[in-house]
Design brief:
Blueprint lengths: L2 H18 L3 H11 L5 E2 L10 E3 L4 E6 L18 H24 L3 E6 L5 H17 L2
Parallel strand pairs: 3-4
Antiparallel strand pairs: 1-2, 2-3
The chain binds zinc ion.
Length: about 140
């Protein structure tokens, strides 16, 4: 077997590993794509650099980690050390999220937030179906 060949197999394996450990925003993107929706991702010229932008529907989706964006759910637990540091950091994130959302709403976007915990295997399908309905039906 040539070196090139083994490299190719290796990179295929690697991409398989990556795709099975999808990041939350990738899960949402893949689903929307499979439903025939087209989007832009990580759009830097919009407030908050949204993860997913569906221009046709004027919809913006943020896929938020429960810890970093302080979701009111069991996944969010304040760290037990450096309390002050984390409090400042997380509160700052929440404040920034709020500001970005206001700016986007003022520009006529609908803003939908999907939380990491809503993408757990057990509840994922339900969450994604609801998201899809929200995107296409309210348009
Ligand atoms: Zn959560």
């Amino acid at each position: 077997m040539s070196d090139n060949h083994t490299k190719e197999i290796r990179s295929k394996n690697m991409s398989h590993i990556r795709s099975t450990n999808s990041k939350p925003e990738e899960i949402v993107r893949k689903y929307l794509f499979s439903k025939g929706l087209r989007y832009r991702k990580n759009v830097r010229n919009l407030p908050g650099c949204p993860d997913i932008v569906l221009s046709k529907y004027r919809v913006i989706i943020f896929v938020n980690g429960c810890f970093w964006h302080h979701h009111n759910c069991p996944r969010f637990v304040w760290p037990s050390s450096n309390v002050e540091y984390w409090k400042n950091k997380i509160d700052h994130n929440v404040e920034r999220d709020k500001k970005n959302k206001e700016l986007l709403l003022a520009q006529g976007w609908r803003v939908i937030t999907i939380w990491e915990c809503e993408l757990k295997k057990k509840v994922r399908e339900q969450c994604l179906e609801k998201l899809y309905q929200e995107i296409v039906e309210l348009n």
